[in-house]
Amino acid sequence: MKNLILTISILALSFNFISAQHLHPSEVSSVILNNFQKTFPKARDIEWEIKGNLYEVEFETGIFGDDHKALYTRDGKLVRHEEEIAKSNLPKTVLETIHRYYSSYRVDDVKRISENRKVIYKVELKNYSTEWKVVFDSQGRILQKRED
């Protein structure tokens, strides 16, 4: 049994290594780097990976080191941006929906995700026994929810 668990663990780690390859900035095309630097001039702690046909960059901004993740195509087009935000920066409509349906939960780990000119919000909601990951649109409608 221990050998089976060890084998599965090694395969899982190998798969992660194959599917996402860390890159040195010199391995990222200048078109992508230039577009990234124009869009996020205050980025720091920058880490690049290639995932399939997309370049993923994780970085921080701001005084408190807000986390970001951005995905670029090979020709330098930003296709997705995910950023950590404060609960207070959620739209009023999202806060109202949370209050209406999840009043006994505390809000944790809030992200604003921009993709294809749409913005959605991913929120972790926790109480003493349950945790939900809920995705909202800007109007406060629940697009997806799953128990975590």
TrEMBL record:
Domain Putative beta-lactamase-inhibitor-like PepSY-like: 25-78, 79-143
Record-linked Pfam families: PepSY_like
Keywords: Signal
Signal sequence segment: 1-20
InterPro entries, sorted: PepSY-like
Protein name, per record: Putative beta-lactamase-inhibitor-like PepSY-like domain-containing protein
